[in-house]
User: Which sequence fits this backbone?
């Protein structure tokens, strides 16, 4: 599955994904970075850093696989967060309907003094 796009990946995203792969060759890393971050065509990237086409393709396939897994994980986290938000929202609605709703902040915490350090 092709997840990563030539020249469209940020340096930060690339570095995080690279940590997931176990790729240690600096030449492979540089060739992949040149292709995915800087936008160099694959053939020029692996030639520039003296990496064979086969090794470059294998490394790129591994990086794509890790990117796909990272995207699946992020989607699951987002779904979990939305589910938790919806559950909390439903609890607030139900509590409000039966008159049991109480604000989380009470007393002085609702209206902190203007001269509090966080307002300076």
Assistant:
């Amino acid at each position: 599955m092709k997840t990563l796009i030539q020249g469209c990946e940020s340096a930060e995203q690339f570095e995080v994904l690279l940590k997931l792969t176990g790729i240690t060759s600096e030449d492979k890393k540089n060739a992949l970075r040149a292709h995915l971050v800087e936008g160099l065509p694959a053939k020029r990237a692996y030639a520039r850093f003296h990496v064979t086409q086969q090794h470059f393709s294998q490394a790129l396939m591994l990086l794509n696989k890790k990117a796909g897994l990272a995207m699946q994980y992020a989607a699951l986290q987002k779904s979990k967060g939305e589910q938790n938000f919806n559950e909390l929202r439903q609890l607030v609605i139900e509590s409000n309907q039966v008159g049991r709703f109480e604000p989380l902040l009470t007393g002085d915490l609702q209206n902190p003094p203007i001269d509090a350090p966080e307002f300076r």
Observations:
- The mean pLDDT is 84.
